[in-house]
C-alpha cells in the first residue's frame, strides 16, 4: 500500500486525513464538497499538529493552507498551550502569526486569535467570500500584504487597538462604518489594482491616516473624525465625496489634483462641501491655482443646488449660470476671450450681410435670429466640451473672412471697444447696444479671470 505523502508539506497522513485524488493532506487540499464532519476533523487535526506551525518563540506560520469555515470554539492560543503543555507553554502574546499563500473559503474569525502581537496575511493569501466584521475589538496589529479579496471587506463598529495596514492588495470595495482606530491606518495599494469603492463613515482616527498611490474610483468620507494628520499621497480618484468630516490638521490634497486634476471635474465632486473642503486645503497651502479650480467647482455646485431648490430663485440661478458659462466663475480667461471673439464675429457677420441685403425689417429680424441661434449653438458646444473652443473660433473666422472679405478684421476691431466714443452721428441699433453691453461684461470677466489665475495671497 502506498503511503499518503502530501505533495505540499511532504508529511505522512492517515487515510482519513488525506485526499488521494489531489494527493494533498487535510490542510492543503482544495475543500470542494466538504461537510461539517470534515470541517470538524480539520480543526481537530490542526490542533494535534500545531507544533508543525510554530517556527520559534515569536513566530507561527501557516503556509499554503486552505481554511474551511472557522469553528467558533477553536482558539489559536488554547491550541498552542494544549499542544505544548508538556514541554513549554507557548502563548500567542506578542507573536507574529503569518498566513502565507493561504486561502480562506469562508469568513475569517478574528476571535480565533487572542494575541497582542501581529497578524500578517502575506504572499497571495486569498479571501474567497465577503469578509464583514461587526462589533469586535481587535487588539493585535493587522497587516494585509499582497492579499486578494475576491469580494468586499467591511468593518462595522470595530475597534482597532493597534495599527492596521494594507500593502499591494487586490480589493474591489472597502468599507469602515462606525469604527475606532487608536493607532495608525495605512492604505497602500499600488495603482494597477483599481478599487471601486472606499467608504469611511462615522469613524474616528486617533493617529495618522495614510493613503498612498491608490487608484480609487469612488472615495467617500462622511462624518469622520481625524484627530491626527491625514495624508493623501499620489492618489488617483475619479469621484470624491467629503461631507461633515472633522480634521484636526490641514488636509493635503496636493498629490491628488496634480495627478488627476483633469479628470477631477464637477461631475466627480459630490457636492459643494467637498469642493469647499478641497479648496480650503489648497488655500491653506497657498496653492492658489488649484484652489481656484475647486472654487469654480464649488460655484458649479451652487448653481446645481439653486436649480434643485424647492423655490427656484431664477434670478440668482441665472447669474451663476451666466457667470459659469462666460468664464467658468472667473477662472477661465480663455473662455471669456472665446465669447468676445465669437460674439464679435457674429455681429460683424450680421452687419455685413445687412449691407449686401436690404435693411428691411424682415431681414433684420431673420439675421438677428440667426445670430442668436449661433450663440445658443456656441453655448451648447461650450457646455458639452466636445471640441476645443478655438477650433470654433477658427471656423467663425473662416466663415466671416470668406463672406465679408475682411480678413484683417477691420470691422471687428472697430466694433469691439465698447467704450469707443462715437464722434459723428452713427446709428446704434438695439443689437449693437446689447452687443456693446455684453462685450463690456466679458472684458471685465477676462480681466478678472487673468487676475485670478495669477494672483498671489
Ligand atoms: Zn500537506
Description of the structure:
With 457 residues, the chain is α/β, with parallel strands linked by helices. The protein folds into three domains: 223 residues, no CATH class; 57 residues, no CATH class; 122 residues, no CATH class. 38% of the residues lie in helices and 23% in strands. The strands form four sheets. Strands 10, 13, 16, 17, 19, 20, 22, 23, 25 and 26 form a ten-stranded parallel sheet that branches. Helix 4 runs antiparallel to helix 5, helix 5 runs antiparallel to helix 6 and helix 7 runs antiparallel to helix 8. It is elongated. 30% of the residues are buried. The model has no long low-confidence stretch (mean pLDDT 82).
What structural keywords apply?
10-stranded parallel β-sheet; alpha/beta; binds zinc ion; 3 domains; 457 residues
Count of discrete alpha- or pi-helical segments spanning 4 or more residues: 11
Bound molecules: zinc ion
- Most strands sheet: 10 strands, parallel
- Mean pLDDT over the full residue set: 82
Distance between the termini: 86 Å
Shape: elongated
Q: How helix-rich are the residues, as a percent range? A: 25-40%
Low-confidence stretches: none
- Portion of residues in beta strands equals 15-25%
Instruction: Tell how many strands the DSSP assignment holds.
Output: 26
Amino acid at each position: 500500500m502506498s503511503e499518503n505523502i502530501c505533495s505540499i508539506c511532504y508529511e505522512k497522513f492517515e487515510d482519513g486525513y488525506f485526499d488521494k485524488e489531489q494527493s494533498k493532506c487535510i490542510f492543503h487540499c482544495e475543500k470542494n464538497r466538504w461537510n461539517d464532519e470534515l470541517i470538524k476533523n480539520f480543526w481537530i487535526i490542526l490542533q494535534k499538529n500545531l507544533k508543525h506551525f510554530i517556527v520559534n518563540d515569536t513566530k507561527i506560520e501557516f503556509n499554503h493552507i486552505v481554511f474551511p469555515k472557522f469553528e467558533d470554539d477553536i482558539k489559536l492560543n488554547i491550541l498552542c498551550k494544549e499542544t505544548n503543555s508538556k514541554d513549554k507553554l507557548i502563548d500567542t502574546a506578542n507573536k507574529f502569526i503569518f498566513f502565507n499563500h493561504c486561502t480562506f473559503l469562508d469568513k475569517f474569525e478574528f476571535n480565533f486569535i487572542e494575541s497582542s502581537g501581529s497578524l500578517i496575511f502575506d504572499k497571495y493569501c486569498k479571501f474567497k467570500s465577503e469578509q464583514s466584521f461587526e462589533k469586535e475589538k481587535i487588539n493585535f496589529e493587522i497587516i494585509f500584504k499582497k492579499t486578494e479579496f475576491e469580494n468586499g471587506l467591511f468593518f462595522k463598529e470595530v475597534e482597532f487597538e493597534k495599527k492596521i495596514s494594507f500593502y499591494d492588495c487586490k480589493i474591489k470595495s472597502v468599507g469602515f462604518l462606525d469604527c475606532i482606530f487608536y493607532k495608525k491606518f495605512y492604505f497602500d495599494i499600488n495603482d494597477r489594482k483599481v478599487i471601486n469603492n472606499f467608504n469611511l463613515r462615522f469613524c474616528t482616527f486617533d493617529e495618522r491616516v495614510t493613503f498612498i498611490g491608490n487608484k480609487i474610483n469612488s472615495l467617500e468620507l462622511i462624518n469622520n473624525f481625524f484627530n491626527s494628520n491625514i495624508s493623501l499621497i499620489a492618489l488617483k480618484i475619479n469621484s470624491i465625496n467629503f461631507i461633515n468630516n472633522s480634521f484636526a490638521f490641514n488636509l493635503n490634497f496636493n498629490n491628488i489634483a496634480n495627478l488627476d486634476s483633469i479628470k477631477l471635474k464637477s461631475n466627480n465632486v459630490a457636492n459643494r462641501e467637498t469642493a469647499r473642503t478641497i479648496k480650503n486645503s489648497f488655500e491653506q497651502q497657498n496653492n492658489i491655482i488649484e484652489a481656484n479650480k475647486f472654487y469654480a467647482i464649488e460655484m458649479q455646485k451652487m448653481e446645481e443646488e439653486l436649480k434643485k431648490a424647492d423655490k427656484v430663485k431664477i434670478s440668482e440661478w441665472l447669474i451663476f449660470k451666466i457667470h459659469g458659462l462666460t468664464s467658468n466663475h472667473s477662472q477661465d480667461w480663455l473662455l471669456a476671450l472665446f465669447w468676445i471673439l465669437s460674439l464679435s464675429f457674429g455681429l460683424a457677420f450680421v452687419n455685413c450681410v445687412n449691407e449686401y441685403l436690404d435693411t428691411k425689417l424682415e431681414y433684420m429680424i431673420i439675421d438677428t435670429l440667426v445670430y442668436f441661434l449661433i450663440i445658443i449653438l456656441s453655448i451648447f458646444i461650450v457646455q458639452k466640451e466636445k471640441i476645443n473652443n478655438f477650433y470654433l473660433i477658427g471656423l467663425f473666422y473662416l466663415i466671416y473672412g470668406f463672406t465679408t472679405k475682411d480678413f484683417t478684421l477691420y470691422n471687428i476691431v472697430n466694433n469691439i471697444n465698447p467704450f469707443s466714443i462715437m464722434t459723428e452721428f452713427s446709428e446704434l441699433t438695439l443689437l449693437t447696444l446689447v452687443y456693446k453691453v455684453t462685450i463690456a461684461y466679458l472684458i471685465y470677466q477676462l480681466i478678472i479671470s487673468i487676475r485670478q489665475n495669477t494672483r498671489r495671497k
